[in-house]
Amino acid sequence: ALSLLGAKTKSTAYVALTDLPSKAVAEAPAESSEPEEPPESTEAPEGEASAAELAGEGEEGGEGSTESVPKPKHIPNLLSYAGALSGKALSRPAAPEEEGEAADAAPLRGCGEGVSFDAVDAFLEGGARSLLVKSAFLNRSVKFWGAPRPGDLAIAPFSDEDGDVVGVLYADSLDNGGGLPKETASVLEAVGVKLAAALKRVWKEEAEAAARAAARQAAAVEAIRRFCGGLLEGSASDDATPDCVVGLASASPQPLAEHLVLCKSMIVAYPDWKVACLGVERAAEEGTYTVLTQQRPGVMKADLEATGFPTVSLESLEDEAKEAEVVFPVERGLFKVAEDGKVSSCVYMGETASEVEGEEAPTATLVDSWAAGTVGLAALFKHMGVELAQHIEADAPQTTEVSAAAEAETEESAAAAAQSTEPSAEAAEEAAEEAEDKQEE
After folding, report:
1. What does R_g of the chain's alpha carbons equal in angstroms?
2. pLDDT 10s per residue in the chain (441 long)?
């Protein structure tokens, strides 16, 4: 639309979007196959006052009037440019502060403060729908982003269906120094109508895409939480792909089915074992999530016989280890979620987090083991008095401080991102291309 507009008016055309907050896109009401019931008559029997009359309806300004109060229109205070002036922004001049002036007095225009908001305010007040500034360089209020040059400037705000100004279209002849054709203003106004409609479609598509992404992310977070809880309950496979792999710190990666067998043997020795999922945050890679979990085995109450690990009898434990409530440090794992919303892998490398909301104090012997480079199940076996061969090098950094506030925000990040559908310069350019196609038709 901008290139077509420039060609028609022999000018440079560009657009700016206002700071109008994003609006919820109303869904069209579903069509009903049921026949509509005729409205009940509100007429009163002869000689009696109707409900409308009793309420005072129909009397201009009368008590009980149901006339709706028009919603106040948004007053733009910022214009962000696209097209030829992409990256530029113009703020509304400050209102005068002299004593005795009315609070709603029009702000005085100073040198280079711009006249765009004069056009916007006139548009909102039902006045002129466009503004033509002849010989713009002679008007000291016009904002020039470079050196002032001869030529005309035309400005035309455009609005949405609520009457709120969405943006402003511009055409200037500063490049050739001549005047603008007399039909420039009407052309700007016509293109503005098409651009507003195109922008509405673009923003609706963006909002719908963001909503779908937020829903997918929320579903992935819930699947991860169920997966973590299901590892000990045996139901994790319900939220996992058939080829899901689990990689624990200090242990070789294994298929989920084998890991569930390991978990089953662990809870025989530690029947009160719980897994607390304390945070899920989307990582940089699509479908990847950083997950904070804390293993809480509790007190050992039976012999441990796990395939691939040494057998540990309860009687072999030191008295202190027998009575200890075992709690792991909070571990940071990397989970991948497939397109079907199921967990395809989870890997832990021994990295821990501290000061996490909801965490329990880890067992001192496990904290010491982690500090020495013995992590994961190897740390648990060391607590039981058994050294495992596999361990992570002690000089590798394994601990990351995490603030409680950051962890509290973990699950809210998707909603914040999904709801951000503020009008963008990119959306304006995309809508302008769509409007241009319509204009050419």
Report:
1. 34
2. 666 666 667 788 889 999 998 776 555 444 444 444 544 544 444 444 444 444 444 333 334 444 555 667 889 999 999 877 888 999 988 766 655 555 455 555 666 678 899 999 999 998 888 898 998 888 888 888 888 888 999 999 999 888 899 999 998 888 888 888 888 888 888 888 888 888 888 888 998 999 999 999 999 999 999 999 999 999 999 999 999 999 998 778 899 999 999 999 999 999 999 999 999 999 999 999 999 999 999 999 999 998 788 899 999 999 999 999 999 999 999 999 999 999 999 999 999 999 999 999 999 999 999 999 999 999 999 999 998 875 443 333 333 334 333 344 444 444 444 444 445 556 566 665 665 555 544
Alpha carbon distances (Å) from 342 to 219, 221, 278, 345, 415:
9, 10, 19, 9, 20
Structure tokens at 182: 């007399």
Q: State the residue for tokens 């200090």.
A: 250
Could you give the count of Cα atoms lying within 13 Å of 431 in the half-sphere of its Cβ?
Answer: 30
| Edge-to-edge strand ranges of the sheet holding 153-159 | 89-91, 78-83, 12-18, 165-172, 153-159, 131-133
Cα 36 from chain centre: 40
DSSP code string of 78-145: EEEEEETTTT-EEEPPPPP--TT--TTPPPPP-TTS-SHHHHHHHHHTT--S-EEETTGGG-TTSPPS
Closest by CA position to 157, among listed 196, 102, 213, 209: 196
* The token pair that represents 13 in the structure block: 């055309």
pTM, entire model: 0.61
Exposed / middle / buried, residue 349 (Cβ in 10 Å: 0-12, 13-18, 19+): middle
Distance CA 84, CA 11 (A): 12
Question: Which residues pair with residue 309 across a beta bridge?
Answer: none
**Closest to 359 measured CA to CA, from 310, 296, 421, 315:** 296
Q: How many CB atoms neighbour CB 23 within 10 A?
A: 15
Contact criterion met (CB below 8 Å) for 421 and 207: yes
Residue 52 has φ and ψ, to the nearest 5°, of: -65, -40
Do β-strands 343-354 and 240-247 pair in parallel, antiparallel, or remain unpaired? parallel
| CA distance to 43, 65, 67, 298, 361, per residue, from 49 (Å) | 9, 16, 20, 77, 75
Q: Return the SS3 of 207.
A: helix
